[in-house]
Every structure is written in structure tokens, then in C-alpha cells.
């Protein structure tokens, strides 16, 4: 294990998100003197060929449904190869702390399985962590009373052209005050309306849920060799605390000799965007503690 006194934080976004969403947290981390790199996963971000119909106003919903997706054909292993390449390029600059939110936890776990030797810590900001193959295929033994599923159903574009890709019309939310309030409550209730509008405009429409597969399940001998932190978000209504605690417990059963270092913040699911100072201080404290 290398000294972690001068790490680079590498951020992996959640579903429908991209590098832009990490900007506020990266700015706060810079005030703590830390480097960071925000990843655009394949099919996401500024260089992805998103449907033009998503951005036009007024929207043509028929054209939006028919437009091909930049996510078509992308697999979990494509994500892993992309992130591993970035890690290799960053490694000469010092230790690496890999951080994920939400759906990005699947990619981060698979990366830790692939290259544990490159990582000094993995951090899950209320991110999905699978530690048992059954978690990828069967219902979980926990009450999941999240508010996001119902809200997301209202913006799901039906009859899309690419099998396996879910297309969410986040921008439709601007024209529907009730839907705006419902999504804001589910995703980022601790933000102002202005902040939530900025988040909505940063979101990509498409996500490929086929990455929810056995390759994203933690391996005790590899993922389990990397120190890992789970940041519980007590105000998260997208992945509620009970579900977060279930994932923590299941992972600790896999690697009882290396359990999660559990931290808690009073923040929403995307609180790193609305309250980045809290997250920056916590991340900075992780590496300071590790360097003592």
C-alpha cells in the first residue's frame, strides 16, 4: 500500500450522469489541496452522440424515441477498460482513490476486481455495491421504499430504438411543476430549485442497465483487498438508508477481515452536487487519516 498523503480522487458518475455533475465537489476538494479527475463513462458526457431531439424545444417525442443511443452495445467491461486506462495514466502522479455514486458503484466494484493493485481506497457515496451473485438476479431481502422509481417511470421514453437502453426525458421535468417537485424530492431534496435545474440540465438521457451483471459482484480476494468506505446518506430517498445498510452488511459478510469503513452524512442521493462542502471535508478526512 502506497502512502496516500497526496491522492488523486477519481469520480465515477451514477446512472444518466457524467463528469459535469462532479464539478462542485471537485472545486471544494481543490480548496482542501486535492487533485481529482471526473470520468465520462462510454456513451456518456460531452463527447457522446446524444439524440438531438432531446435538446430541441419543443421536443418531438416520436423522434426522441426513434433516435439511436450512444449506449448501444456498451458493456460493463467497456466501462472497466475505460476507467482502468484512466487509472494507469493517473497512477504515476500518486495514490488513487476511486469514488462512485449510485449506479456507478457497479463499475467501481468491477474495476476494483480487475486492478486492486492500482487502488488505495474505494469509496461508495450511497452507491450500488453487489457482494453476492444473487444480488444481481434476485430480489433483495430489504424494504426498498425509494421514491425514484415512480418518478423515473413518469419520464421514461417508451418504445425506444435500442434494446436494453433506458431513455429518460429529464428535460421534460422543466415544463411540469408537479413532476419537478416529485423528482427533486426523490433525488436532491436538500437543494434549491435552481441547483436542481442545473443538475437536470447536466443529465444524459440514456443508461444501459445490462451492466447490472455478475462481473459487477465484488470478489473477496481482489475487491476485498482494497480498503473500502461506504458513505451512508441519511436523507437519501433514491437508495434509502435501509438499502444502504443491507449492502454494507452483505459486503462485510464477504470480507469480514476487511469490513466497510462506514461514514454518515445528512445528505440526499446527489448531495455531493447540492452540498459539496460536506463531501469534500469527508473525503479529505479519509486520506488524512490514512496518511497518519
Question: Can you describe what's shown?
Answer:
The structure is a single chain. It is globular and about 55 Å long. The chain has 11 helices and 8 strands. Strands 2-1-3-4-7-8 form a 6-stranded parallel β-sheet, sandwiched between helices. Strands 5-6 form a two-stranded antiparallel ribbon. Helix 1 links the parallel strand 1 and strand 2 (35-38). The protein has helices spanning 23-31, 52-55, 61-66, 76-90, 104-114, 148-155, 177-188, 193-202, 241-254, 271-274, 276-291, and strands spanning 8-12, 35-38, 96-102, 121-127, 165-167, 206-208, 228-233, 261-265. With 292 residues, it is of the alpha/beta class. The mean pLDDT is 95. Helix 1 (23-31) packs across helix 11 (276-291), helix 4 (76-90) crosses helix 5 and helix 6 (148-155) packs across helix 7 (177-188). The protein has one domain: Alpha/Beta hydrolase fold, catalytic domain (Rossmann fold, 3-Layer(aba) Sandwich). The protein is 37% helix and 14% strand.
Low-confidence stretches: none
Summing up helix and strand content along with how strands pair, one would put the structural category as alpha/beta
Order of helices and strands: EHEHHHEHEHEHHEEHEHH
CATH class annotation: Alpha Beta
CATH architecture: 3-Layer(aba) Sandwich
| Strand order across the largest sheet | 2-1-3-4-7-8
Furnish the topology, listing elements before pairings.
Blueprint: E1 8-12, H1 23-31, E2 35-38, H2 52-55, H3 61-66, H4 76-90, E3 96-102, H5 104-114, E4 121-127, H6 148-155, E5 165-167, H7 177-188, H8 193-202, E6 206-208, E7 228-233, H9 241-254, E8 261-265, H10 271-274, H11 276-291
Parallel strand pairs: 1-2, 1-3, 3-4, 4-7, 7-8
Antiparallel strand pairs: 5-6
Amino acid at each position: 500500500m502506497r502512502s496516500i498523503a497526496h491522492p488523486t480522487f477519481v469520480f465515477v458518475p451514477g446512472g444518466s450522469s457524467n463528469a459535469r455533475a462532479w464539478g462542485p465537489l471537485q472545486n471544494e476538494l481543490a480548496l482542501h489541496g486535492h487533485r481529482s479527475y471526473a470520468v465520462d463513462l462510454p456513451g456518456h458526457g460531452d463527447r457522446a452522440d446524444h439524440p438531438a431531439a432531446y435538446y430541441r424545444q419543443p421536443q418531438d417525442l416520436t423522434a426522441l424515441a426513434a433516435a439511436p443511443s450512444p449506449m448501444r452495445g456498451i458493456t460493463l467491461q467497456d466501462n472497466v477498460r475505460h476507467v482502468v486506462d484512466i487509472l494507469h495514466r493517473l497512477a504515476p502522479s500518486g495514490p488513487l482513490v476511486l469514488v462512485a455514486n449510485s449506479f456507478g458503484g457497479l463499475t467501481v466494484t468491477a474495476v476494483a476486481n480487475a486492478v486492486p493493485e492500482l487502488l488505495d481506497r474505494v469509496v461508495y457515496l450511497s452507491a450500488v455495491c453487489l457482494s453476492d451473485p444473487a444480488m444481481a438476479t434476485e430480489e433483495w431481502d430489504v424494504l426498498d421504499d425509494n421514491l425514484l422509481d415512480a418518478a423515473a417511470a413518469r419520464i421514461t421514453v417508451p418504445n425506444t430504438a435500442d434494446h436494453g437502453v433506458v431513455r429518460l426525458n429529464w428535460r421534460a421535468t422543466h415544463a411540469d411543476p408537479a413532476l419537478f417537485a416529485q423528482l427533486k424530492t426523490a433525488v436532491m431534496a436538500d437543494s434549491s430549485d435552481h441547483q436542481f435545474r442545473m443538475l437536470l440540465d447536466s443529465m444524459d438521457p440514456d443508461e444501459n442497465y445490462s451492466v447490472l451483471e455478475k462481473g459487477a459482484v465484488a470478489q473477496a480476494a481482489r475487491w476485498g483487498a482494497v480498503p473500502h468506505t461506504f458513505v451512508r446518506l441519511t436523507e437519501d430517498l433514491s437508495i434509502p438508508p435501509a438499502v444502504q445498510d443491507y449492502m454494507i452488511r452483505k459486503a462485510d459478510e464477504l470480507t469480514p477481515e476487511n469490513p466497510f469503513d462506514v461514514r454518515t452524512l445528512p445528505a440526499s442521493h446527489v448531495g455531493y452536487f447540492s452540498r459539496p462542502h460536506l463531501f469534500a471535508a469527508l473525503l479529505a478526512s479519509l486520506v488524512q487519516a490514512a496518511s497518519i
